[in-house]
Amino acid sequence: MSQVSFEKLLEIMEAKDKRLVDEVGGLQVIAQNLGSDLENGLQMISDHDLDQRKQKYGENKMERKAPPSIFELFMEAMKDTTIIVLLIAAVISITIGAVICSIQLGKTCPRKPLWDIGY
């Protein structure tokens, strides 16, 4: 059985590249180096052994990336040409509707433009 260094294990985990797994001899070799079994996982080990494994290999947890904020999602959506065209069309439509209504109905127009709100 070939030895797989802790650094190599970290490299495999971070890169998530199957070729690196194949370079060391496959999953079976990695499992043997970790004292584990691909079918059954870890055999019953004592708390002391478990603590030693945690110290050597760390917690068996992956870091979660923070989800994108609403602003980041909005900015990503603004890169889409279709969204940009629809926004421009909406602004033009609202502006034309408000102007035409103001021209035809004057002060009684229910769709007052933003520049004519008056308090």
Automatic annotation (TrEMBL):
Gene3D superfamilies: Calcium-transporting ATPase, cytoplasmic transduction domain A, Calcium-transporting ATPase, transmembrane domain. It is a multi-pass membrane protein. The chain crosses the membrane at residues 83-105. One of its GO terms (cellular component) is plasma membrane. Pfam families: Cation_ATPase_N. Signal peptide: none annotated. Keywords: Magnesium, Membrane, Transmembrane, Transmembrane helix. SUPFAM superfamilies: Calcium ATPase, transmembrane domain M. The keyword Transmembrane helix applies. It is found in: Endomembrane system. It comes from the Eukaryota. Residues 23-98 form the Cation-transporting P-type ATPase N-terminal domain. GO terms for molecular function: P-type calcium transporter activity. This is Cation-transporting P-type ATPase N-terminal domain-containing protein.
